[in-house]
Every structure is written in C-alpha cells, then in structure tokens.
What does this fold into?
Amino acid sequence: MSAPDEDTFAEEGGEMEELAEAGSDEDEGVEMEEEAAAGEGERKVYVPGIEPLRPGEELEMDRSAYRMYHECQTGAPCLSFDVLRDGGGESREQFPLSMLLCAGTQADSAMSNRLLVIRMHNLHGTEKEKEGEESSDEESDEDDEDEDKKPQMELAMMPHYGGINRVRATQRGEQSLAAVWSDKGHVEIFDLQPQLVAVHSSAAMASFIKQQKEATALFSFSGHMAEGFAVDWSPTVPGRLVSGDCKKNIHVWEPREGGTSWQIDQRPFSSHNKSVEDLQWSPTEATVFASCSVDQSIRVWDIRAPPNSMLSADGAHSSDINVISWNRSEPFILSGGDDGLLKVWDLRQFKTGRPVANFKQHSAPITSVEWSPVDSSVFAASAADDVVSQWDLSVESCDVGARVEGVKDLPPQLLFLHQGQSEIKEIHWHPQMPGVMVSTALSGFNLFRTISV
It folds into this structure.
C-alpha cells in the first residue's frame, strides 16, 4: 500500500538505497474512498467485504486517515519479523521517527534466505494535500524539502540456510538475541550485535558485507524432530524461551550462565493432540504460558507442573487456532483462527469455555493478533483477506455518533481497516511509539499510524 507521492524505500546488497515516489491503485484505509464509475466524481467510504468494486471503480487512499505511512521491500518476502527495542526513548511521537526490526525471509530456495536487521529512519508524517497554484520558486523549495524528508533504510543481511517460519527478539543484558524457527526443523538463537553495529555505521556496514558468511547460531535445538512456528521469549525472566512444533510438542528453554547456552527438558509439554501454532508467556507470572493449536483448543500451562496443561478451553474456535496474544495489564487472551473469528477470553472465566467478546469482520483466516502495548483495550489483527483491523473494546454502541451509509452496520469497537498489501502474515505495534504499527506481507512491509489510535 503506497500513498500517492509517498516515498517508498528499499534496499539491495546491504547498502542503503532510496526508491522514487510510488503510487498504487490498491491502497486504502478505513476512511478509504472509491471513485464512482459514472464519472460524477462521487466519493464514498469503501468497506472491504460489504460490497465488491464494480467495473471501472478503483480505490484511492485517503491520506488524511493516516498520521504516518511508509512502505518498503527487502527482496524475498518475510513471513515473520519482530521489533527491536532501541535507546531512543519511550513514548516517541515527534517526527521524524526511526525504528529497528529483525526479520527472516522465505525465499524460493533454501540457500537464498537471510536473517535481517533493518534500520529505518527519517520517517516523517503524512502531510496534508496542498491547495492552489504555486510558483516555480516555491516548487523548487518544496522539492528540496521533499528530498530531505525521504525515508532511509539500512539493511544488514546474514545468509541463513532454510526459510524462516518465525523470528522473535529479546534483550538479555547487553545481548540482543533472536530466536528463529526454520523450516529445517531447528530452533536457533542468534546474536544480532554485529548486524546492529552495521546498520548504524557505514564503515561497519562495509566491513560486515566484506566478511559476510552464513549465520552461525549461538545455540541450536533439534529436539522437536519436526518444523514449527510457535516461539516466545519470557517478558519476566531474561533468556527464558518456549517453543512448539507441528507434532504437538512444547519445550521450555532455561538460560545457563554465560548467555550462550540453554537447558531444555527433553520431556515435552504435551496436552495438545495436533500442531501447536502459537505460544505466549504470561506478562506477570514468570512460570505461566498459553498455547493454541490446530486441535481448536487454547491451553494455559505452568512449567512447575509438567507435562499437562492446568487450564484449557476446548473447541475455542470451530477450526484451527492460528494465533494468540496475552494482554499486558488485563487477564485477557486474544485469539484468531481459520474461521476468521477474533475472540477475547477472560482468564477468570476461562473454564466456562465462552469468550467475553467475539468479532467476525475478516472474511478469511486470521494470520496475526496483538494487543496494544500502551492501551489495554486496543488490539489489532491481520488476515488472509489482506486487511489489518484495529479495535477498541472500550467503545460501546452509545459512544458512536452518526455514521455514513455502509459503515453504520460495523461493530462500534472497530476503529480502522487498513488495506493495500497482499498476503499479510504478521503485525506488531511498536512498543516505544504509541499507535505505530508494522505489517509484513508478500508485497513487503508497511509502517503506519492511523488517526484512530
């Protein structure tokens, strides 16, 4: 999704590159508008899934619906990524912004994959459309200003044999670590420090590229005996990890002294009877984590009581449960499944097997869900219908004023629908920039902040 006249940035070979302006006819947000085919110039809100586009109609991005919007490509698409915390401070809202990401590619061949550290900076906000005629001098000044506002990207790529199913990053002391589930059937831990140094220094980047060789893991675990997707770092115990595979087994990793090895119990946690799709540690209880599975259940475990789960909601969805997210400040778990449903579970009522909220807005399997790190009532989701949705549970029907035609039948908790990418795989809020989201898809990355959050 690219705004008209919005800068797009991409990179090849590890060195920074800027792309010229790009525009796409497929871009839209919640306040997206469509041109009427009748030629009358009528513009109206387009809501995906409600009414298909008619011949001759095209979608046009309403830039006023975004406080910030950028897109980038990294070569091979990234199925998974994570946001790396940086030293720039908390609650950053002043433009230009900068961010660090860690991502893993899914290339056409195993040899072509890369583990990436991406630094994006000089990220400016979305400007209002300019009105009226402008003199050539004014246009020249604006061209110089636009040049200064081009987004920048540095990309440190480390060759990785095998496609990367999921990547999760954490900080352990001075170490920046990435846990990688690859389609080779291994879970590997990588130290990202060389790449982080490279993206902050042109001299270090030149040296990094010259010495480039296949990524060497700090530690690797092949005990799963199958590939998988589920992995999560503990937010309360630095270095503690949990991983789950497509054969239903879950292993907990305990960090050893020195920071380069882990103790993994060979006996797995094994109450699921089908593939484990996602895992989430409790944000408050160090020994507790949750899982979801193709067996349609969500389970809560305590590592002090292996090998079975202590709580479960069986039949939580009517099909595979793909993703879960544990709220940082409320006892809520959010889940998304192949049935396209989003469900909110109150752990105080978990044994009833009934969610406290249930939303059917997406028309295809849910691919990613995440609670906002700064607002406990706000969450986002993505799905195979190429839509990212933003929600606020604190909104009630009586809070909503008059709505335009086509929107009045939507749930009042639905804040925004973001489109324009194809095959969206994963979304994350930025923990240090309120409201800023990043999404990855077959078509690349989007970085945006809507007017709704």
The helical segments are 136-148, 193-199, 202-210.
